[in-house]
Amino acid sequence: MWRAAFRKHVTFPWGGCVGTNATFVQHLGAHGSSDGGLEMPVAVCVDHSGNLVVSDGNQRVQVLRSADGTFVRKFGSRGTLPGQFEGLRGLCVNSAGNIIVADSWNKRVQMFSSDGAFLCALDSPAHLRGAPYGVCVDERDNVIVTFSSNHTVQVFSSDGVFQRTFGRAGVAPGELMYPAGVCMARDGSLLVVDNNNHRVQQLLSDGTFVRAFGSLGSGVSQFENPCGVCVDGAGHIFVADQCNN
Question: Three-state DSSP class for 243?
């Protein structure tokens, strides 16, 4: 399991890559803009070859060997054109191996082939456009995106066509304040990091509320502005508790 630390390397939220016993393995990368160098990496996932795909603050996506961090390839640059980025956030890989990237400040989500060729942009209706943060795919390769700036979760088809939205600003069950990371639970429901409400919400694919856990604080099962979430093969939920370090 890997996590992109908000520093100059790739690591787990609590120190590195871990196995099932949470033993530290290693961290990869160093500060820089050369191939393999990183600037405040925000997100990481694993492609079909077992490589790490990293959202790099140098406004590019880098693919690195998970075993030792060796540079494999990169794509993207700073800008507003297709294939360019401004404010990279979450990313994921679908069943076809395509890489889907939240391009936050450009208010769009872009899809690329496994070798970095631009495929399409996922376009929200005008009244729903905002800054995307987290992204994941379901078992049908529908793309689920959290939009922090308008407090919504939006769903797109596998080819990028808008399907539906749910969520609104608020503190009640099913309401969100600056949602961040998102992932699929083992039962097909969604786990959404509700950043400014300091909790994680479990929702069905139509937005129906299931449950929530967490509250503001530094104690056990409390969070302060959590940002990321993932689930392991046993169903354990891991949450990156940002301001509690």
Answer: helix
Render pLDDT for 110-119 as a digit per residue (tens, 0 to 9). 999 999 999 9
Neighbours of 218 (CB within 10 A): 11
Q: Give the distance, in angstroms, between the CA of residue 105 and the centroid of all CA atoms in the same chain.
A: 15
Question: Span 93-120, mean pLDDT?
Answer: 97
Q: What angle do CA 99, 239, 20 make, to 5 degrees?
A: 85
Q: What's the 3-state SS for 201-242?
A: EEECCCCCEEEEECCECCCCCCECCCCEEEECCCCCEEEECH
**Pick from 147, 143, 145, 175: which is nearest to 160 by CA?**
143
Q: What is the pLDDT of residue 25?
A: 74
Residue holding tokens 């939920």? 237
CA distances to 16, 45, 198 from 11, rounded to whole Å, are 4, 12, 23
How far apart CA 47 and CA 220 sit, in angstroms, is 33
Place of tokens 């539906």: 164
Number of other CB atoms surrounding residue 34 within 10 Å: 8
Residues 48, 62: Cα–Cα separation, whole Å? 15
Q: Which amino acid is at 14?
A: W
Is the C-alpha dihedral spanning 140, 228, 104, 87 positive or negative?
negative
95 SS3 class: coil
d(CA 144, CA 225) in angstroms, rounded, equals 21
What's at 16, amino acid-wise? G
| Assigned token pair, 90 | 């979450």
Cα dihedral across residues 144, 91, 230, 142: positive or negative: positive
Structure tokens given for 31: 């500060």
